[in-house]
């Protein structure tokens, strides 16, 4: 029942995720939890009963088994699956809380607008400005103005998923936390196998057929104090080795999917942010160029409107000058002709 509730929450969280999260969820519930539930019990169910040590000392076999297996592998993998799902569950709870806050702020904004419509004196009052300032701060904090909706396909059909800057940030953080949980339990699994095999490196992942219990050598008043080295025999070592390697490989693949999804989401978010910033800068440049163009056209039209006046003034000056010249010629023509005493003088002057 618990795993059904966890699966329901994770499926809802997939509305925010990429196809890589679907692959991670498929590995989680099909190749990990299903295999552990179906196969794990038959492999590790008789682990304690079939663990035999060459001793007749009371309690010695029990303390040797506790040293060989500090925690059951089935319980360890159950903890692993639960803690790996924990970041996704926390993210989904945070997303639901953020969306509830956004809807509340929208309803409060609508109520303020209704008050303004119902009472005109409310607009411009101190209460109005105080409430408006508080709402603006909360809306800026929760990113109401930057709310975006993404359409995705789920089991129930087409679903609209709301995104805010805070939800996007927590989504990226939850991917990091999920990757960290995967790596942590891979390391803890290595320590558990190292405790059993007493080896390091890749050889530690092999379950030994024989386990040498040295509990009596290092513990005072131990149940195995009569013998410092007691050989114990492990049941189904090869089967357990194969199962352990399988779970480790699936965990490594899941961790790789988590880090790839983190890089993909971070790269896509950064690219979109840079594109939006470049688009805003381009719009700003276009606005500045349009403003400068209107200023230049305004000054040109002013000069053009003043130029006809200048032409008219110059034309009037030229007309006045021409009128003066014509009047002078007319005065010269109107003067009396010269008188001549004799015809010979007139002929001589004319010649």
UniProtKB/TrEMBL annotation:
It is a multi-pass membrane protein. GO terms for molecular function: gap junction channel activity. Its main location: membrane. Residues 42-75 form the Connexin N-terminal domain. One of its GO terms (biological process) is cell-cell signaling. Signal peptide: none annotated. Residues 328-351 are annotated as: Disordered. This is Connexin N-terminal domain-containing protein. The lineage of its organism: Eukaryota, Metazoa, Chordata, Tunicata, Appendicularia.
């Amino acid at each position: 029942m618990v795993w059904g509730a966890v699966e329901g929450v994770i499926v809802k969280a997939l509305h925010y995720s990429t196809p890589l999260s679907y692959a991670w969820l498929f590995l989680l519930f099909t190749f990990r939890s299903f295999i552990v539930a179906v196969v794990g019990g038959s492999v590790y169910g008789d682990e304690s009963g079939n663990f035999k040590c060459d001793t007749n000392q009371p309690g010695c076999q029990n303390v040797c088994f506790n040293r060989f297996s500090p925690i059951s592998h089935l319980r360890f993998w159950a903890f692993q699956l639960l803690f790996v799902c924990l970041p996704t569950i926390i993210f989904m709870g945070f997303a639901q809380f953020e969306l509830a806050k956004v809807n509340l702020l929208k309803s409060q904004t609508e109520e303020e607008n209704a008050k303004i419509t119902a009472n005109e004196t409310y607009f411009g009052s101190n209460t109005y400005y105080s409430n408006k300032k508080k709402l603006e701060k909360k809306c800026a904090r929760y990113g109401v103005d930057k709310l975006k909706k993404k359409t995705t396909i789920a089991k129930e059909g087409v679903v609209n998923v709301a995104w805010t800057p805070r939800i996007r940030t927590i989504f990226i953080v939850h991917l990091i936390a999920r990757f960290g949980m995967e790596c942590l339990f891979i390391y803890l699994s290595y320590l558990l196998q190292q405790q059993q095999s007493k080896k390091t490196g890749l050889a530690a992942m092999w379950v030994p057929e024989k386990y040498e219990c040295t509990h009596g050598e290092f513990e005072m008043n131990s149940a195995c104090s009569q013998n410092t080295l007691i050989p114990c025999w492990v049941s189904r070592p090869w089967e357990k080795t194969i199962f352990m390697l399988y779970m480790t490989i699936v965990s490594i693949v899941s961790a790789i999917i988590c880090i790839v999804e983190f890089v993909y989401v971070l790269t896509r978010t950064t690219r979109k942010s840079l594109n939006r910033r470049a688009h805003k800068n381009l719009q700003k440049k276009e606005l500045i160029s349009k403003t400068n163009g209107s200023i230049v056209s305004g000054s040109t039209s002013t000069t053009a409107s003043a130029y006809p006046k200048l032409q008219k003034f110059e034309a009037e000056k030229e007309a006045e000058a021409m009128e003066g010249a014509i009047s002078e010629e007319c005065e010269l023509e109107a003067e009396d002709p010269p008188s001549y005493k004799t015809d010979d003088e007139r002929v001589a002057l004319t010649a």
